[in-house]
Amino acid sequence: MHNIPNTLTIAGVDPSGGAGVFADIKTMSALGAYATGVVAALTAQNTQGVTGIYPVDPAFIKQQIDTLFNDISIDAVKLGMLGQQPVIRTVVEALTHWQPTHIVLDPVMIAKSGDHLLEKAAIAEMREALLPLATMITPNLPEAGVFLEQRPAETVKEMYAVAEKLRRLMADADHRWVLLKGGHLPGNECTDLLYNGDQMIEMPAQRIPTKNTHGTGCTLSAALAALLPQSSSVPKAAKAAKAYLYNAIARSNELRVGSGHGPVHHFHAWWKPLPSTD
Q: By C-alpha distance, which of 130, 144, 108, 131 is closest to 217?
């Protein structure tokens, strides 16, 4: 395989650049992948909230995907905001045909501002059609609760049972992984679980006190799509992706973007830290 992987994000557009397609392309580029993008939805949003959503015709989404795959060998796909049931069906049909090696699903349901980004009618379609197609899913605790129709886990012990249930919703095949994110756990610990039906791997971290967490889910899933084709194992890719996001959050205060939930610093490894003004 060529040294630089080609990756694809199929997601919505966040004009502020903190989440969605723009954030995914920044992340993939920062981690050594050539990023391509298919726009699945348009939003009007900033760091404070979403003021509008404009859907993209599913037929045109399919045309974007087919045109891209007809020309470019895609090593990994990240799925983000799809928004509507017909769009999910279209993406499932297209990716079933093209069969990329890695499909990372970030089940985007609610924005950091609390705005809903996935129609209720689309949740069942995502659970029944998209989860079995994905090779890795990256839900947070509220999203996992929606999939399983139960309250979100509140402890790491409860997360174990949730990860096991989520894995059973995926295809009964090798190389299918759940990365259950623990960012909503109470306290200062942010433990994620990585599970493939056999291995259960805890990935602990300390919470960073900042409000600059816009697009963290997008960034982590895009990092996984970039790193999976470059890594010798899924656990190695997952740990590297989590480390990248952790540093992007830790350096986020160097940016001055908006007055709400600011973005993470996608290019923290490339841009020199700003001199202290203290």
A: 108
For the chain, the residue count is 278
Which of 26, 216, 219, 262 is catalytic? The answer is 216
Annotated active-site residue in 7, 217, 242, 262? 217
**pLDDT tens digits, the chain, 278 residues: what are they?**
458 999 999 999 999 999 999 999 999 999 999 999 999 999 999 999 889 999 999 999 999 999 999 999 999 999 999 988 999 999 999 999 999 999 999 998 765 656 566 777 788 898 999 999 999 999 999 899 988 988 989 998 999 999 999 999 998 887 899 999 998 887 888 899 999 999 999 999 888 889 998 999 999 999 999 999 999 999 999 999 999 999 999 999 999 998 899 999 999 999 987 776 55
Say if residues 87 and 58 touch (Cβ distance below 8 Å).
Answer: yes
**What one-letter code names the amino acid at 233?**
S
Q: Quick one: how far is CA 216 from the chain centroid? A: 8
User: Is 181 among the residues known to form the active site?
Assistant: yes
CB burial of 247-268 (b: ≥16 within 10 Å; e: otherwise) equals ebbebbeebebeebbbbbbbeb
Mark whether 216 is an active-site residue. yes
**Which residue in 26, 78, 112, 181 is the catalytic one?**
181
Q: Which of 7, 9, 182, 218 is the catalytic position?
A: 218
Encoding tokens for residue 96? Answer: 């079933």
Max Cα distance, the chain (Å): 56
Label residue 153 left, alpha or beta by phi (over 0 means left) and psi (-120 to 50 means alpha). beta
